[in-house]
Design goal:
Blueprint lengths: L1 E3 L12 E4 L10 E2 L8 E6 L5 E6 L11 E6 L11 E2 L8 E6 L6 E5 L7 E5 L3 E6 L3 E7 L4 E9 L2 E8 L10 E3 L3 H5 L7 E7 L3 E8 L10 E7 L17 H6 L3 E6 L8 H5 L8 H14 L4 E11 L1 H12 L5 E5 L5 H7 L3 H7 L19 E6 L3 H16 L4 E6 L8
Parallel strand pairs: 18-19, 18-20, 20-21, 21-22, 22-23
Antiparallel strand pairs: 1-2, 2-3, 4-5, 5-6, 6-7, 8-9, 9-10, 10-11, 12-13, 13-14, 14-15, 16-17, 17-19
């Protein structure tokens, strides 16, 4: 039992299916158990007794950021479907991420992004979903045979991943124990904890944003700001550790770091996610400007020393900033999308561009804008092909406008989302 890409036209569809084959199979034809769903299905996990199958499913074809529901279906000993596919999270406005069965064959422990964190929850077909433990960035597993505490990988913005155990039986909810071989080393470092703030934005909603102050912070001083925009665009700055765009590393250079989660960010309801599609430079941009306004008003911020940086979609937003606002003193654009037509023509994910931008390139009207002369370094990696060609167009346009710029192209893969 496994998740398989479409048999044909993988570049044009997100229709991944749960498939079943015999271990003696020699055919290239696989039995699809979720062929009724034209959107994505993934992650089959059997209950301990082998009588039920859990998996994730989306509803909207061609849309990778659609809500992931947790599905349950009854099976026989061979894995053949014998029951009805049923969502046990239909009324929960979050996407299920990881999940494991408990030993009772009825309870499922799961994680999901929720308000820039990833708490552990548990769900049953009858009771629905409820929160089990407050959490930051977590991954976990359950000992189904002995009903022993789950193994948890717990992390936060100021805490690299550490191994923990957490009780999963009734009455053991608070039995969290950690095993961190790096504790002594980390104790030597000053790793400030971020503050979560809410910024009013259009539509009567609020945007969550992290503010991370540098080590040795003094409120009487004026500090420069690194305003970071995440990629995706359907992603989020979670209270979790990153080995790529590590906020603590930026803060350690003496910056106040702002990490906004504007329209399109995950973990704040599906409507909030959906409102980025077809509107990359609209509500999301205005949300970010509201976040920048908030940052500028902080009494310890030097509003004349605010720079912005981002990768992939975050890089796109740096390029959008370049033609829309002059408020940032520097823009760092890494592996950005700049030209939708060239991205469409070079990507392996045609479904992404066609959904996000409303169709085929020749069916969509485009516009151009002039550059402001904000200094902006640019970087890209050769293996990021769908963005690399866009970046070459970008650097030519920037230099044609006589704006100060530099560009570095790496020969290998460069991580870019966060």
């Amino acid at each position: 039992m496994f998740t398989a890409v479409p048999e044909k036209g993988e570049a044009w569809t997100t229709n991944h299916d749960i498939c079943r084959v015999s271990i003696a199979n020699t055919s290239t034809k696989w039995e699809a158990l979720t062929g009724h769903n034209l959107a994505a299905d993934s992650g089959p996990v059997f209950s301990p007794d082998g009588k039920k199958l859990a998996y994730r499913a989306q509803i909207k074809a061609g849309y990778e950021a659609d809500k992931w529901d947790l599905m349950i279906v009854e099976t026989d000993a061979s894995g053949r479907i014998v029951g009805k596919h049923t969502s046990i999270t239909p009324n929960w406005d979050r996407s299920v991420d990881e999940y494991v069965w408990a030993a009772d064959n009825a309870t499922i422990f799961l994680t999901a992004e929720e308000a820039a964190a990833k708490p552990i929850g548990k769900s049953t077909r009858r009771a629905g979903r409820r929160r089990f433990r407050e959490g930051r960035q977590q991954r976990f597993a359950v000992d189904q045979r002995r009903r022993q505490p789950a193994g948890v990988q717990n992390a936060a913005t100021h805490q690299p991943p550490r191994a923990c155990t957490i009780g999963t039986v009734r009455g053991a909810n608070d039995s969290l124990k950690s095993f961190d071989p790096n504790a002594a080393l980390l104790a030597e470092l000053n790793l400030p904890q971020p503050e979560s703030v809410e910024v009013p934005v259009e539509g009567g909603v609020k945007m969550q944003m992290w503010i991370l102050k540098p080590p040795g912070f003094e409120s009487a001083k004026k500090w420069p700001v690194a305003f970071l925009v995440h990629g995706g665009p359907q992603g989020a700055w979670e209270d979790g550790w990153s080995f790529r765009w590590c906020p603590e590393l930026w803060a350690a250079q003496g910056y106040v770091v702002a990490l906004p989660n504007p329209r399109g960010s995950t973990g704040f309801g599906q409507k909030f996610v959906d409102e980025i599609s077809g509107d990359w430079g609209g509500k999301c941009y205005r949300d970010l400007m509201a976040g920048a306004d908030y940052v500028e008003k902080l009494p310890y911020v030097d509003k004349n020393r605010i720079g912005a940086a981002g990768a992939s979609f975050g890089g796109y937003m740096m390029d959008w900033f370049a033609v829309s606002t002059g408020r940032f003193k520097c823009l760092i654009s890494h592996c950005s999308v700049w030209n939708f037509e060239s991205m469409w023509g070079t990507t392996e994910e045609l479904w992404f561009d066609e959904y996000e931008h409303g169709g085929l390139p020749w069916d969509i009207p485009r516009s151009t804008a002039s550059f402001r002369r904000t200094p902006r370094p640019g970087t890209s990696g050769n293996s990021r092909r769908r963005c690399c060609s866009s970046k070459m167009i970008w650097i030519s346009a920037v230099r044609s406008a006589r704006a100060m710029s530099c560009f570095r192209r790496y020969s290998g893969r460069v991580s870019n989302r966060k």
